[in-house]
Amino acid sequence: MTATRLAHGGNIDRQKPITFTWNGRVMTGFAGDTVASALLANGVRIIGRSFKYHRPRGIMAAGADEPNALVDLTHGVRHEPNARATTVLLEDGMQISVIQGWPNVDWDIFGVLDLFHRFLPAGFYYKSFFKPNWGFYENAIRRMAGLGRAKTSADRRKFDARVDHCDVLIIGGGMAGICAARAAISAGLNTILVEDRPHLGGRLNWCGRVIDGMPADQWAQQIASDLNCRVLTNAVAFGYYDHNLIGVMETVQTSDPDCGDARLWQIRARHVVLATGAFERPLLFADNDRPGVMLADAALCYVRHYGVLVGDRIVIATNNDSGYESAIGLAQAGAEVTVVDIRPIAGGIQQRAEMVGVRVLPSARVIKAIGRTAVTAVDIRTNRGSHIRIDADILASSGGWSPAVHLFSQSGGKLRWDDGTLTFVPDQSPQAVRVIGAANGTFDPAASMSEAIAAINAIAPEKVSWSLPALSQTEKSVAIEALWQDPDIIGRQWVDFQNDVTFKDIALAASENYVSVEHLKRYTTLGMATDQGKTSNVIGLAIMAQLTGREIPAVGTTTFRPPFVPVSLGAMAGSRFGPLHSPLHQLPAHQSHQKLGAEFREYGGWWRPAFYPRNSEDAFATIQREAKAVRAGVGLLDASSLGKIAVRGKDAAEFLNLIYYNELAKLKTGRLRYCFLLRETGVVYDDGVVARLADDHYLLSPSSSHTKGVLDQLELWHQTEYPSMQVSFHNLTSAYATISIAGPQSRTLLARMESGIDLSDQALPHMSLTHGTMMGHKVQLARVSFTGERAYELTMPAGQGRTFWEHLMNLGQDLGITPIGIESLSLLRAEKGYILIGTDTDGLTLPVDLGMAGPLTAKKVDFVGKRSLLTPDAMRPDRRQLIGLRPTDDQFVPAVGSHAILQVDGTRRSIGWITSSAFSPHLNHTICLAMIEGGRGLVEANAHVTIFDRGKTTTARAVEACFFDQQGVRLNG
Amino acid sequence: MLIIPCPWCGPRAEQEFHFAGEPKARPVPAEQVSDQTWAHYLYHRSNEKGAHRELWSHAHGCGRWFVMERDTHTHQILSTKAPA
Questions:
Q1: Cβ of B62 under 8 Å from any chain A Cβ?
Q2: Which pTM value belongs to this model?
Q3: In 10 A of CB A549, how many CB atoms?
Q4: FRET label pair with A428: which of A166, A669, A691, A804, CA 20 to 30 Å apart?
């Protein structure tokens, strides 16, 4: 016998059939079905194979707690490798298939693993697969175990994201949640209600109770229909973050192939009310993972909410009254139901159950499920101690309820064990959160409603004008009786179904002294699957307590972390992927570079030309050609990304002198100085040229990627340490474009710009600047070089960048003008030994290591980082120092990062590394810059060092860190 | 994500701010303090559990730096004020 769809009843629309496939077989469900309810209605019993032992598994739950029913789901462009069948709404055309099992789910060849289970205990990985190493086994094991496979192709869908805020956010639209929402609305609070199912009402939709004289489901729908607040259904609150920020993932149905099926909400709430309900716990007995073993409330949910009767001979094992609620619903739908209660007597509900034909076995317990691929019978120990076997096709169990405290715990809240209900309940949280109803361990409906009102009353005292509905007379109940694991039961009993953790594994952990909850979890993987142990955590803890003779609270709980349910990465990313992930700055003349065929790369957040290949030139040839063109004629580099920070004010000179390593107060107007900016640790943070435009006006040029950081440093020092100084800072970087014109022909080219600026070396020597007008625009012309050639930086309004660039390119054609990218610039500057911060330096490099010791002795005033340069460590003679290296093999270019090594006692010891390396087309040999211990001494001794590059060793001579034009003849003209 | 009350702009989301650690008084005159005092200034942080003073800047807002007192355990913000 399999499950059947009833002719009527349930929250499905029988007028709207839906076609889908299961492992290629065409099936039909109805609008309102979940994937799980539709599969059950179509007679599917085995929905997958277990993670480790490949045992056949069936659907166990009806919500987010489902551990077994993970399926592969394809729907148009949407693909989810591990969709939880119990929470995904069925849509027309869905292709659903198993994620485990080969050749098929009904007959899985790896099922043989189950026979060897005694050799696969908890921690068998650590005990078995260490010789020769784990990698030897990894591939084979990962193929056998594991979950579904993600697609490797890109997901082009865009996911929506929303940000919202409210006075009170109510999470959970069950009875407590909708009562709280009604109360909050009546109090005039701006309210949002979030519910993870499509309908409000939660268990009211299937529990069969009566409220205000009407069936609970109708009452819930009536309340829901006039909730005058924002209500998000199909929306699961997955994360509770600081200061009441809640992450919510809303599932959206869409036929647009470019639109994602989920929407991420960030909701900031003044107050959060958690009405997240509770998860039913299963009871343990032998072979409790057989298809057909399920949770009692899930069986009730399927029959009342989806019109699917899961079986016709049903045994319900229980230790509390709620098992009878399920028994009544199932018996009313026509099943033959037997309740096996461990207690001698149940509450008033027992009588009602017996009235609808339910058979009750008191003081009895289920000890084993019979049947391999489906339950066929149940072994029971009766109150007289005898064993009987009852034929059954469904074995449902109710071991009590665990409040869904996940979000509360994420809020920073602590949990408290309640012996009366056998639950962990919320205690204190540092955030503005209140927990009501079953989530608070309050299972009585009337008490739960009162809690809802009280919570809103506490938020808005004396404002609530909504009063409680009347409940049908509550009957006498009998308390739950603890039953975690019956030591008399032999046979394998599953605790964590998704990760295949059995009672025996926990016992093994206990016997090997992994008794702390954190060890238990990691050693057995209990609760670490994607269901996060919603059905298994509390049982696992209780068993550990039982085995080690402790109280449950003494074992403790693990910390719950977001997300409460798996969240689509697409929803997390929203539209922030591809070019929008981290948008790059573009240069003002970007289109000109595109036209010239530039190959763009990212440099410090800017999308800049790396080089400009011609025809079929490769990168190496292009870079060599560009570099040669600069030294032979003139090259044009777009330097617009270079920082431009204006520093103005009466105290600008004094302030900059405190901040910069170099002397700046004495810098003459119209002159430039190359400077270091240090951290207080003395480490070089940035380098750049500083210009003095007037007595009270400087212009800084930090590295492209450090502009913001330098500005932050200036503001920080000014605002916190020197607030009385009159100085201000203005970032002008994006207001101007800068073109660097470098090479022996640079002055000739500039002269053609007809600016009237005197370009003679007397008027404009190296490291000076002037202003003028070109092409009708004010420009700044600075003579400064990063190539070692005569060079000028021409700065104009950003909007003119493209016009100037193209005009210069035209004017220089007969001079062999060549656009150059960052890569050839990097080669040219390496020939001169000019450093790049972060490339040739690191987080330990001091100015003295770079050969710039002058300012430390010459500058009398204090400055940032000065004190750190006077420590014994800063003055060690064996510090790493920047030097040049010339490999013995002229053609061999060692990789950047190759170490210089010494052989010490047969082992290699690093004495430093190569920071830049290139083949110089001008010198026709390789050049390297390197940071080497005691490097200056090696240069003076003309010594050789050994280079270790990717397994090969070679030698190189220590030389000055300047390979080209050491006298600076070309630079100064 | 915290809600931070900027002393000048009022409560704003954390992503508008930059964090710069514990404010430390710079020992002056720096050249005359001992290596030990200087090292303490550079590298030692109190790492409190509970009330803790921190430097923040409203980087994507007014650009001002301020001192915030925050409970490192509960993330409760106790005060924000202009640097002394």
A1: no
A2: 0.88
A3: 7
A4: A166
